[in-house]
UniProtKB/TrEMBL annotation:
Ligand binding (Mg(2+)): 222, 242, 246
Species for this entry: Streptomyces cinnamoneus (Streptoverticillium cinnamoneum)
GO BP term, example: L-phenylalanine catabolic process
Binding locations of substrate: 116, 130, 229, 233, 335
Protein name: fumarylacetoacetase
Entries under Pfam families matching the protein: FAA_hydrolase, FAA_hydrolase_N
Domain Fumarylacetoacetase-like C-terminal intervals: 113-387
Entry EC number(s): 3.7.1.2
Active site: 121
Keyword list, A-Z: Calcium, Hydrolase, Magnesium, Metal-binding, Phenylalanine catabolism, Tyrosine catabolism
Residues binding Ca(2+): 114, 188, 190, 222
Every Fumarylacetoacetase N-terminal domain range: 19-106
Cofactor(s) needed: Ca(2+); Mg(2+)
Pathway: Amino-acid degradation; L-phenylalanine degradation; acetoacetate and fumarate from L-phenylalanine: step 6/6
Length: 397
């Protein structure tokens, strides 16, 4: 544990010495020098400066404009650096107030996958999008974690404005599609996992190897244009209704910070193939409590512990076909929804498909924490975004 520091956050602050998430920041005096910082309460530790001052062997990994070199170094190095950072918390010389720095996208995103792992969400969406189907879940849903490849290049850091997307939409009653700004712009409250250690082609990552590969965790808002999505998604899945923007936290919380929050996933109702069978594995769930606010008002508290598929199963599934894994690969859980009406992770479910959806100027913020050691809270950095109007209609539209 660190020595006492005058900067030490108050008891109950989710960014105390048990959390220590990594981000990338700049200061007003050096706006062209992004480097790695560690959040500690209302402060940011300049990890590059502290590492240099304390003669750390890992100083070169911390004086970087992205987390990728540190992420690629592997779990033994992650653990050494985290231990060193704890020792630097008592050295006041290298801290900046959080409100005086600019935060940047913390890692260079390689590939991006979004899953669909909440049984409550998938069931609710199935009932809304396919009201005539016998079963809300598709026949494959309990046998494999369903996902799709998203657009890595439009992942943006928390605080970035989101421009209302435009596209084709056609309601069932309409004779022909029309073009224009989305009229049903929604959120999806999700949890993201950042891959550090790569894996070569044809070396699937087993459930037990999850910790060796996943560097950390963050919040994700998978903005979704429901009208565009509903018209385009059959038969190949989400496309332009999702790819305009995906917001992520500025802070990546190390996976090891959640050791006390591991929890068993819901009971499996269908037998799983061996590569997904986690019945004898360490508990794969995380007891993260998410809060969704729109314009400052709490609209939902989705429980991540209710997710049917775990992040370890998702990584095993992503690589079981022989696909390689790169540092910076990023995957999100899918919308987190629990069984209760105030635990739903998107407006589609919260309004039972009727809306209202997001208006221009609306600001959405996700926060989350998990239980840590000795009653401490482990926080995920917030993810926030404000909707700005679509640009004027392009010529010829
Ligand atoms: Mn999603």
């Amino acid at each position: 544990m660190p020595q006492h520091s005058p900067l030490e956050p108050a008891e109950g602050d989710p960014f105390g010495a048990h959390t220590l998430p990594y981000g990338v920041f700049t200061t007003p005096d050096a706006p062209d020098r992004p480097r790695i910082g560690v959040r500690y309460g209302a402060y940011v530790l300049d990890a590059a400066a502290a590492a240099a001052a304390h003669g750390s062997a890992h100083a070169g990994l911390l004086d970087q404009p992205t987390l990728n070199p540190l992420m690629a170094a592997g779990r033994p190095v992650w653990q050494e650096v985290r231990s060193e950072v704890r020792g630097w918390l008592s050295d006041e010389a290298h801290f900046h107030p959080l409100d005086r720095v600019t935060l940047h996208l913390p890692f260079e995103v390689a590939d991006y996958v979004d899953f669909y792992a909440s049984e409550h969400h998938a069931g609710n969406v199935g009932r809304i999008f396919r009201p005539d189907a016998d079963e809300p879940l598709t026949p494959n849903w309990k046998h494999l974690p369903i996902g799709y490849h998203g657009r890595a290049g439009t992942i943006v850091v928390s605080g970035t404005d989101v421009v209302r997307p435009q596209g084709q939409r056609k309601a069932p009653a309409d004779a022909t599609p029309s073009f224009g700004p989305s009229l049903r712009l929604d959120i999806e409250a999700e949890v993201g996992f950042v891959v550090g250690t790569p894996a070569p082609v044809n070396t699937p990552v087993t459930l037990g190897a999850f910790r060796e590969h996943v560097f950390g965790v963050c919040l994700v808002n998978d903005w979704s244009a429901r009208d565009i999505q509903a018209w385009e998604y059959v038969p190949l899945g989400p496309f332009l209704g999702k790819s305009f923007a995906t917001s992520v936290s500025a802070w990546i919380t190390p996976l090891d910070a959640f050791d006390e929050a591991r929890t068993a996933p819901p009971e499996r109702t269908h037998p799983l193939l061996p590569y997904l069978d986690d019945s004898g594995a360490e508990p794969g769930g995380i007891d993260l409590r998410i809060e969704v606010t729109v314009n400052g008002e709490t609209v939902s508290r989705p429980p991540f512990s209710a997710m049917y598929w775990t992040a370890a199963q998702q990584l095993a599934h992503m690589t079981v076909n022989g696909a390689s894994l790169r540092t910076g690969d990023f995957y999100a859980s899918g919308t987190v929804s629990g069984p209760e009406p105030d635990q739903l992770g998107c407006l589609l479910e919260l309004t039972q498909g009727k809306g209202p959806y997001l208006a221009d100027g609306d600001e959405v913020t996700l926060t989350a924490w998990a239980p840590g050691p000795d009653g401490a809270r482990i926080g995920l950095g917030e993810v926030t975004g404000r909707i700005v109007p679509a640009p004027a209609a392009p010529p010829g539209s």
